[in-house]
């Protein structure tokens, strides 16, 4: 163990014990708490505790993932139980302070659950439906620690992984450990993280970068910002380990502009690491030096694509680059770089601390570890869950999510964000696994799961996804710039009851061109939602086209000409798009099957 870490550990353990010797009130003031009005609850708590004269610590923490329960307040009494109060408005605060904090008697009738010990009349936290089956690795500190508090983080095992790497392992052993763990990238493509690190480690350049992608522009995904909001120190530890393993000296964390609380908390975490010798020259007193900075990225979905991010940090428009060269050879500022999603990076400290075999023993053969899923839509318990790969989608949606709030049948799930697909309810027994889901046409992507009941129109949902894809197309290459506009034009008229003969085939042909001709994944995957919906709900499309749609579709504004993304990049307005460029490429010629429905 390094001397620096040994001292930090001793102080942190002592302070943590002291913290638990007084009443400790943790208030979830992250994005979800704030959205549900927690600031009023927090003020009332601060006021009532001050007036009561009790010496209690009030901590602001990130969400536990139980978003349906926000504002959530967690009260731990010394030698007493720890109790969670859900949906706690300021009107209940005086009673809780008087009965629970002053007199040590939990207010069971408005409490949600107890933690670590039994309280008569309350379930344990792990017995809550949404906590079933959860194995928390990347979210291990969610709701437990103040986000940028080094003491809290270290007392719960933080920086032991980095200390172990620095004091007991050679860089190549760290790369091998990550490779052996089976960790795959959580940013969408699911590529082996250890293999990718190996590419950068093999590059002898004296300047190399570790880039951490927290752009997260997918509708329905909120797991990346939640990690920043609840536990940014885990990302810093992961980046440091990646830097040591690959011989890199600089890290850049990309966060979408406007994610204010995650940005603030990450800034504070970086500062505390510099103040304590964990970042900067001679990390923890060793020969390894590493700096981290934050780069704010403009509001653009395609800016999350790895080479577009690199362009953005160089002050250019965030448009993807041609590849090769790949980032490990030519990354940001032309220097070799490795880019990982924040979830991927957040697993690394625990993999090094607990070993590759431990991580690999969780999940399925090809998808090791856990998946962090964001549950939203028609669901009783919306929020964030971390579950081992290998669970079925039904377990996730029905056991943890509680199904539809009104008991209506689930019709389908939208998975994998705007470039993903739809999974019909009769396939809910599909196992959560990268490859199984991709084979079913419903990639897991970065973890957004939007649940739709039987009142939702799949045709309208697909039109919405395509409207997003068209708006976000950066416009650099024409198959995507025109293809997404053209697809949307067809979907718009189908939804308006004005479809034309041959529209099904036309969409398939546009899809072929998108896939074959687009420069980056945005265009290459842009046809996925349509293809997956046609495969599973072709009848609904046909009914919609014949004017007998099973579900009325809300009126829309259209036909669309230019949208923000295309306009900003000087793209041709949709109205002038001609079909000529697509008809020359037939699906058979490119061996990409067109949907069978027409
Ligand atoms: C249009 C588009 C948007 C993307 N957005 C993100 C994003 O917001 N966050 C992310 O981590 N990866 C995103 N990616 C994937 C990245 O290009 C890259 O594969 C990923 O950051 C690599 O990290 P990983 O190996 O840990 O998955 C996007 C890709 C495309 C094509
Ligand atoms: S595929 Fe779309 S998003 Fe990607 S570079 Fe081309 S126009 Fe831009």
Report on this model:
By secondary structure, this protein is α/β, with parallel strands linked by helices. The protein has helices at residues 3-19, 31-35, 38-52, 93-102, 150-155, 160-168, 171-181, 193-201, 223-230, 232-246, 260-275, 306-313, 342-354, 356-360, 393-400, 434-439, 458-472, 478-495, 503-517, 521-524, 528-545, 564-568, 580-583; strands at 24-28, 57-61, 73-76, 82-85, 111-115, 209-214, 250-256, 291-297, 337-341, 370-377, 383-388, 410-415, 421-424, 448-453. 40% of the residues lie in helices and 13% in strands. Strands 2-1-3-4-5 form a five-stranded mixed beta sheet. The protein has a five-stranded mixed beta sheet with strand order 11-10-14-12-13. Helix 6 crosses helix 13 (342-354) and helix 18 packs antiparallel against helix 19 (503-517). The longest helix is centred in the last third of the chain and has 18 residues, at 478-495. It is globular. Residues 558-598 have low confidence and may be disordered. The site of iron/sulfur cluster (SF4) has 15 residues, from helix 18 and helix 20. Iron/sulfur cluster binds next to helix 18 and helix 20.
In summary, what is this structure?
The protein has helices at 3-19, 31-35, 38-52, 93-102, 150-155, 160-168, 171-181, 193-201, 223-230, 232-246, 260-275, 306-313, 342-354, 356-360, 393-400, 434-439, 458-472, 478-495, 503-517, 521-524, 528-545, 564-568, 580-583, and strands at residues 24-28, 57-61, 73-76, 82-85, 111-115, 209-214, 250-256, 291-297, 337-341, 370-377, 383-388, 410-415, 421-424, 448-453. With 598 residues, it is of the alpha/beta class.
């Amino acid at each position: 163990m390094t001397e620096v870490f040994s001292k930090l550990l001793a102080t942190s353990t002592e302070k943590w014990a002291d913290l638990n010797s007084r009443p400790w009130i943790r208030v979830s003031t992250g994005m979800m708490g704030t959205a549900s009005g927690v600031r009023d609850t927090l003020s009332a708590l601060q006021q009532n505790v001050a007036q009561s004269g009790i010496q209690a610590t009030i901590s602001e923490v990130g969400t536990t993932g139980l978003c349906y329960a926000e504002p959530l307040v967690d009260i731990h009494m010394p030698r007493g139980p720890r109790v969670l109060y859900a949906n706690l408005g300021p009107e209940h605060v005086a009673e809780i302070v008087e009965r629970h904090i002053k007199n040590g008697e939990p207010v069971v009738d408005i409490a949600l659950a107890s933690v670590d010990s039994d309280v008569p009349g309350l379930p344990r936290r792990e017995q809550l439906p949404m906590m079933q089956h959860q194995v928390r690795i990347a979210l291990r500190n969610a709701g437990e620690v103040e986000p940028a508090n080094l003491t809290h983080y270290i007392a719960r095992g933080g920086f032991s992984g980095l200390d172990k790497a620095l004091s007991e392992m050679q860089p190549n052993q760290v790369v091998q450990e990550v490779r052996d763990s089976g960790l795959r990238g959580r940013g969408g493509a699911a590529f082996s993280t250890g293999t990718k690190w190996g590419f950068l480690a093999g590059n002898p350049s004296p300047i190399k970068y570790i880039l951490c992608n927290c752009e997260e522009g997918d509708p329905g995904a909120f797991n990346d910002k939640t990690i920043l909001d609840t536990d940014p120190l885990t990302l810093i530890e992961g980046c440091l380990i990646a830097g040591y393993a690959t011989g890199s000296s600089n890290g850049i964390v990309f966060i979408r502009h406007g994610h204010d609380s995650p940005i603030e908390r990450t800034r504070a975490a970086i500062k505390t690491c510099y103040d304590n010798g964990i970042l900067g020259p001679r990390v923890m007193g060793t020969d390894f030096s590493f700096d981290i900075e934050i780069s704010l990225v403009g509001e653009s979905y395609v800016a999350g694509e790895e080479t577009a991010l690199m362009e953005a940090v160089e002050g250019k428009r965030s448009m993807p680059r041609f590849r090769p060269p790949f980032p490990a050879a030519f990354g940001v500022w032309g220097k070799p770089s490795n880019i990982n999603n924040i979830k991927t990076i957040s697993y690394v400290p625990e993999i090094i601390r607990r070993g590759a075999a431990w991580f690999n023993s969780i999940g399925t053969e090809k998808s090791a570890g856990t998946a962090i899923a964001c549950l939203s839509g028609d669901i009783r318990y919306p929020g964030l869950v971390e579950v081992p790969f290998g669970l079925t989608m039904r377990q996730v949606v029905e056991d943890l999510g509680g199904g539809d709030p009104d008991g209506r049948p689930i019709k389908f799930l939208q998975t994998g964000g705007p470039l993903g697909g739809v999974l019909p309810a009769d396939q809910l027994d599909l196992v959560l696994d990268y490859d199984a889901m991709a084979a079913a046409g419903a990639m897991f992507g970065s973890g957004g799961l939007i649940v739709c009941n039987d009142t939702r129109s799949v045709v309208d949902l697909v039109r919405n996804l395509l409207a997003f894809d068209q708006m976000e197309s950066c416009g650099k290459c024409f198959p995507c710039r025109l293809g997404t506009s053209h697809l949307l034009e067809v979907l718009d008229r189908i939804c308006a009851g004005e479809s034309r003969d041959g529209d099904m085939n036309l969409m398939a042909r546009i899809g072929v061109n998108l896939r074959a001709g687009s420069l980056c994944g945005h265009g290459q995957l842009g046809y996925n939602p349509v293809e997956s919906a046609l495969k599973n709900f072709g009848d609904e499309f046909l009914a919609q086209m014949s004017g007998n749609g099973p579900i009325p579709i809300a009126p829309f504004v259209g036909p669309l000409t230019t949208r923000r993304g295309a306009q900003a990049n000087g793209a041709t307005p949709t109205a002038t798009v001609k079909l000529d460029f697509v008809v020359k490429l037939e699906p058979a010629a490119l061996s990409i099957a067109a949907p069978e429905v027409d």
